[in-house]
């Protein structure tokens, strides 16, 4: 099947089997390797992308469900961050790094995408809300504290 997708703001035409995983289309056809395959079973969250603004596990989403839809990957968020030195995406990614939310990097893209979606809907989420939103993302390195600090409300100057 041929499908037209909007990926990180760009229209892309891809071709694949209807049940081909979105994860594989992104990585193999579009070269967007920031989206990682962790478990391949929808348990770890490493492959999280936004589908029409909602976090989904790209290892579980078939291509047939993506035609005509908007997909945002970690590369799209990084691209937004590089647009200027002072924008919400840049501040978010800088804070993620500064607070120790990044260690080995395997889970980082999934956390970044999931957290970005959360902050788009709730710019100052409570710690309970952050924990709830990130519950589907697993990390073996950080103990989650750096990630939680990255999403805590910024102190007043």
Given helix and strand content, the structural type is: alpha+beta
The pLDDT mean sits at 93
Q: Give the strand order, joined by hyphens, for the main sheet.
A: 2-1-5-3-4
Q: What is the chain-wise order of helices and strands? A: EEHEEEHHHHH
Helix amount: 25-40%
Compute the separation of the termini in Å: 53 Å
Largest sheet: 5 strands, mixed
Low-pLDDT sequence parts:
none
**How would you sum up the global shape?**
globular
> How many alpha or pi helices?
6
* Beta strands, count: 5
- β-strand amount: 5-15%
The whole-angstrom Rg is: 15 Å
Structure described in brief:
The protein has 157 residues and is an alpha+beta fold. 35% of the residues lie in helices and 15% in strands.
Structural commentary:
There is one protein chain. With about 160 residues, the chain is of the alpha+beta class. The chain contains 6 helices and 5 strands. The chain has a 5-stranded mixed sheet with strand order 2-1-5-3-4, sandwiched between helices. Helix 2 crosses helix 3. The termini are far apart. The model has no long low-confidence stretch (mean pLDDT about 95).
């Amino acid at each position: 099947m041929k499908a037209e997708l909007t990926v990180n703001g760009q229209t892309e035409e891809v071709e694949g089997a209807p049940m081909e995983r979105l994860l594989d289309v992104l990585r193999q056809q579009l070269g967007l390797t920031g989206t990682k395959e962790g478990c391949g079973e929808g348990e770890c969250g490493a492959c999280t992308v936004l589908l029409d603004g909602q976090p989904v596990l790209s290892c579980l989403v078939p291509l047939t469900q993506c035609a005509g839809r908007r997909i945002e990957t970690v590369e799209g968020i990084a691209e937004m961050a590089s647009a200027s030195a002072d924008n919400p995406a840049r501040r978010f990614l800088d804070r993620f790094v500064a607070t120790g939310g990044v260690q080995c990097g395997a889970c980082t893209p999934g956390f970044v995408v999931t957290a970005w979606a959360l902050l788009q809907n709730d710019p100052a989420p409570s710690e309970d809300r952050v924990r709830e939103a990130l519950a589907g993302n697993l990390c073996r390195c950080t103990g989650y504290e750096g990630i939680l600090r990255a999403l805590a409300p910024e102190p007043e100057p």
